[in-house]
Design a protein that fits this description.
InterPro entries: Tektin-like, Tektins. Belongs to the tektin family. It is found in: Cytoplasm, Cytoskeleton, Cilium axoneme. The protein is mostly helical and 425 residues long. Helices cover 82% and strands 0% of the residues. Helix 1 runs antiparallel to helix 3, helix 2 runs antiparallel to helix 3 and helix 4 packs antiparallel against helix 6.
């Protein structure tokens, strides 16, 4: 009978086998329990993480909406402030241009005053006097120079203020542009979902970029821009009020000085006219007096010539009576009468000669004074013509003032760049 070949090996007891089976069963139960615990913990973790993820996403969306609201609010504030800055720049530019026109309008009064002073320097002789007209004209030149300096200072200050407003406007627009870009980014982030095609994992997304600011710094930056803009607009408003006051004062001073100068010029012209009329009257009366004096001199000369014949007669009679002979050469009444007659005639002739010389001297004095009055009248008439030319020259001021008043009724609302409204960049 054949025998089976059996591979030699270790043999276990039944008890060992049963023990092994129990151990295997117990181990399975233990592993199952551990697995159940893991599954329960995994489910709890899934539920917890799902809820956490959902609420974190919801919280992020809420924060994004809050951030969008804050950025939008500041964007509106910045945009409103920028528009106010534009309006203030427009108003300040218009006021600056008004002052520039006012400054340009002072050129004509200055030229007129200088021309009048030059005209009046052409007066001759005693008419070249330092009168109130000259004082008022010089004062007018000083007033215009002072007004020009004041206006130029205001214009320069307005230019500087416009530069400051332009600078803050640039800061506002930059901040506003940043806010708009930030809004676009946050709105894009808010619109993204788990199913969006453009989402992906990024390398080191939690890094902190250089130049990052805190919310307090962010708000303080925009608040500073708005606050500075308000300060500059307040300064610009005060400057515009000062410029308006300066312009009014300048025009009032110009008008007051123009009236004072015109009054002094009219008064001087009136006095000159009175002096010319008086001198003309004196020339006429002097001419009449010369004519009468010449007639009297002619009469004196005729009387003087008429006294020669009686004197010759008396001399001849006395000479003839010296030829009487002897005792008839008597100093009788006839002799005394002839001697007295000669003396009287000689005295009369001497008196007539003296009076004739006095009359001729007076005539020469009248003629010389008449010539002097003619020269003086010529100078006065020349001075009067210069005063009248000065008055005609100053009429240009009245015409220019009327034209400026008509032109100022319609002022185009344009700034220095020619735009009717400043655009927000």
């Amino acid at each position: 009978m054949a025998t089976l070949s059996v591979k030699p090996g270790q043999r276990y007891n039944v008890s060992d086998w049963e023990t092994s089976n129990r151990l295997m069963s117990d181990t399975a139960i233990n592993k199952q329990m551990i697995s159940q615990e893991v599954r329960q913990e995994a489910q709890a973790l899934r539920n917890e993480t799902n809820i956490k993820t959902y609420w974190d996403k919801s919280d992020t969306c809420r924060r994004l909406r809050d951030r969008i609201y804050d950025v939008t609010r500041w964007k509106e504030n910045l945009a409103s402030c920028a528009q106010e800055v534009d309006k203030e720049m427009e108003a300040l530019t218009l006021m600056k241009e008004e002052l520039e026109r006012t400054l340009a309008s002072t050129t004509l009064p200055l030229d007129v005053a200088a021309e009048c002073l030059t005209l009046r320097e052409r007066r001759r002789g005693g008419e070249l006097v330092s009168d109130p007209v000259e004082a008022e004209l010089k004062k007018e030149v000083e007033v215009i120079d002072g007004i020009q300096r004041t206006l130029q200072q205001r214009i320069s200050r307005a230019f500087e203020q416009l530069c400051l407003l332009q600078e803050i406007r640039h800061q506002l627009t930059n901040d506003l542009q940043n806010k708009m870009e930030a809004l676009d980014v946050d709105n894009t982030c808010l619109s993204l979902t788990e199913t969006s095609s453009e989402i992906s994992l990024k390398p080191n997304p939690t890094r902190v970029l250089s130049g990052s600011t805190t919310p307090q710094q962010w708000e303080q930056f925009s608040r500073y821009n708005v606050s500075r803009a308000l300060e500059e607009m307040e300064a610009s408003l005060q400057l515009r009020e000062d410029m308006t006051l300066t312009k009014g004062q300048a025009l009032n001073e110009l008008e007051a000085q123009r009236v004072a100068t015109d009054f002094a010029l009219r008064k001087r012209s009136h006095h000159l006219q009175q002096a010319c009329d008086e001198l003309e009257w004196q020339r006429k009366t002097t001419q009449d007096e010369i004519a009468q004096l010449e007639q009297d001199i002619h009469g004196l000369e005729e009387d003087l010539r008429a006294k020669t014949a009686p004197l010759k007669l008396a001399h001849t009679r006395l000479e003839h009576r010296t030829t009487r002979p002897g005792a008839d050469l008597c100093r009788d009444e006839v002799q005394f009468g002839l001697v007295e007659e000669v003396k009287q005639l000689e005295a009369t002739i001497e008196a007539l000669k003296q009076k004739l010389a006095q009359a001729q001297h007076s005539l020469q004095a009248l003629l010389q004074h008449q010539a002097s009055m003619g020269e003086d009248l010529s100078r006065k008439l020349h001075a009067l013509s210069l005063e009248q030319r000065s008055q005609e020259t100053r009429q240009r001021l009245t015409a220019a003032a009327q034209q400026e008043l008509t032109a100022s009724a319609i002022v185009p609302l344009t700034n220095s760049s020619g735009r009717h409204a400043l655009e927000l960049l």
